[in-house]
Structures are given as C-alpha cells and as structure tokens.
Amino acid sequence: MGPPSAPPCRMCVPWKEVLLTASLLTFWNPPTTAQLTVESRPFNVAEGKEVLLLAHNLPQNTLGFNWYKGERVDAKRLIVAYVIGTNQTTPGPAHSGRETVYSNASLLIQNVTQNDTGSYTLQAIKGNLVTEEATGRFWVYPELPKPSITSNNSNPVEDKDAVDFTCEPDIHSTTYLWWVNGQSLPVSPRLQLSNGNRTLTVLSVKRNDAGAYKCEIQNPVSANLSDPVILNVLYGPDVPTISPSNSNYRPGENLNLFCHAASNPTAQYSWFVNGTFQQSTQELFIPNITVNNSGSYMCQAHNSATGLNRTTVMMITVSGKWIHEALASHFQVECGSQRRARKKFSFPTCVQGAQANPKFSPEPSQFTSADSLPLVYFWFLLFLLSDFSCLTSGPSCNERRGLPQP
Q1: Which domain holds residue 108?
Q2: Which of 126, 161, 287, 357 is the most exposed place for a label (fewest CB within 10 A)?
Q3: Which residues pair with 345 in a beta bridge?
Q4: pTM above 0.70, yes or no
Q5: CA atoms of 307 and 158, how far apart (whole Å)
Q6: Which residues 6+ apart lie within 8 Å of 128 measured at CB?
Q7: pLDDT of 210-238, one tens digit each?
Q8: Four-residue CA torsion sign, 141, 179, 190, 210
Q9: Residue 382 covered by a domain
Q10: Domain of 256: which CATH number?
Q11: Where are the beta strands (DSSP E) in 59-117?
Q12: Taking the C-alpha atoms of 272, 273, 279 and 282 in order, what is their torsion angle to the nearest 10 degrees?
C-alpha cells in the first residue's frame, strides 16, 4: 500500500512568485538618512581672513553638538559645545576667542593664522544619545610680500663666468617662477633651477643672456612679483671692421676711415699705419693724401673690462698716375658691316665692352691722359680699314673719378 498522499494545498503560491519576492527583498534597501558632512568655505584661506565650517545634513533629532580641533573627539581639544534646546554655548580648552558657533552647527573662525591649518571634527549628539561625527579641513596661507633678487655677479664676462640669482624670502608652500625680459624662463641646459626653484643659475653666460630678470612667488591665495635685476654681460671686442671698404685712392683726396667692433663696454680704438701708432680714436682722418700715405692701416679695438684686444688691417693704395676724368667715364661705339650686324659697345674704365668683343679690346693703360685721344681713334681706324663702319659718341662723364694707373 503506497504512502498516504499529501492533503491538497488550499492557498498555494506559484514558485516563480516566491523567487521574485525573495529577489526583491534581497536587493531592496530602505532609504538611508543623508550623512553628516562639513564643508570649508573657503578651502584655502589667506592669513588674517575668516573661514566658515558649514555643517550639512545635521540629524533632525540632534540635541546638541561639539566642535574639536583635529580628526578625532578629544576633550582636551574641545573648541565649543552647544545645546540646541537652550542655545547654551560652552567654550572648551581649544577655544581661542576667535570662534563663533551657530545653531545650525556651523563654526566661524576669524582672523585665521597658519597654526589654524588642519582638520576640525563636528560631533552631533542625537536624541537617543547616539553620536554622529564628520570632519572638515582647510589651509591657511600668508599674503605674500614683494620678493627681491640677490645675485653673486651682475657683470659677468661672456663664456667665462656663471651667475646665481636667488629669490627672497624663503616661504614654505610657495611656488617660485622666473621671468627674463618679460618672458617665461626659456629651456636651456645653461639655465638651472635649484633650492625649490628659488635659485636660478646661468652657466657660461652669453651676451644674449643680458637683460631684466624677475622672480614671482605664488600660493593659492596670493602672488607677487619682484623688481627687475639687470644682468650686464661683458663681452668682446669682436674682430673690428673698417669702413668704407674702398682701398684705392688718388692723390689730393681725403682719407676717412671708421672702425667698429661689437663690445660691452664700448671698445677703445687705436690706429696704426705701417706699424706706427697714429692716434686713439674710432675715426681716422687724413686730408690731402699723397702716394706716401699708401700702406697698411690697422685698427685695434680694446675692451678694458674683458682685457681683450682685436685687430683688423686694410691695405690702402694711393696711385700717382690716373686716367683723365673724361676718359675715365666711358665711350660708346656702334660698329658694323655688310656682313655683320651692327652692335653697340661701351668702354668704361673696366673695359666691359671689350670683354663683349675680343676683337676690340684696348687696355686701360692706353688711356693715360687726354693726349692719348689720337690713339683711341687709331683703334677705330683699324675697324674702318677692315670693312667695318663705326660711330662713336663722346664721353658721358658718368664716373666722377678716374682709374689708377698700374
């Protein structure tokens, strides 16, 4: 005989509904009360200003609250206790006289100092005497003074000296920045920062390093900029140059030479002619020169700060024989024949026209004076005798001076 069958279920619930209910119970949580928090306004505070520690989500059944200095409840570090029902305030051992507590549990601290930096704990006491705590924090920074720069050498010599700039004063939790001629510090292996960026070192200074240096100090609540310190780089002299570059002169002209060399401070100049000292000036002037003034002209540049000397030499030639001014300008000749097209030739002192037609190339030495004019026509006659016809135009006198005769 088989086992007795189970009595029929009068209020049966489908198993799928049971599983759904279990799932909902597992994943559903009743809403929780918002957590007590403390907000610092502002978070970064300038020394001497005030900060408000604002309480959020204070429990509704709160009977009173306490404020402590630090991250934990410590009776020795109690700032103030407050009873909501009676509005009674009781200062604690950590009360400085600068704190004010409000009924909403917020705490105002005035005239803050850097010693006030840190954490503050709010303890809320609820009706069942259960406590809830929250911590807030803030940072106090000084109002930064105007910085200044000290330097170990404000007049360094190029490629020889190094310079250290130091930004003063040394202030904790402060950012130091450097500016050169109004621009942020360029990236260079010769520019090195140290000592928390307070010290800037310029290695093997160059003339391009010269200029105005400033330092700036910053913290989260203030910034200030120093007055400029001028770096004066001593350099040179570089190899001097003599102007004008013309080296050929005629008797009776004035010789006026000018010497210049890049140098800081400005170079001192001396002139030597054929090795003999002439004068200590930047400009050399000799009026009405003769052939005896030919020779080597040396300019020496001296820098008294670097102790360096640089020289350059120019050879000056004063010639005694010159082509007549009219002949030193140029002739224009147009020649041709029945077999050859007509061409125009120009014969300046450099005989450029002769280079264009080698068949007609008089040398400059043939034109030594106005007396040589028949010789010119002799050359033209050669063309006339050789099936050429030529037309000439007189000197245009474009050149104002002649050509020296070798």
Answers
A1: 37-141
A2: 287
A3: 333
A4: no
A5: 12
A6: 61
A7: 999 999 999 999 999 999 999 999 999 99
A8: negative
A9: yes
A10: 2.60.40.10
A11: 62-69, 78-83, 88-91, 99-101, 107-109
A12: -70
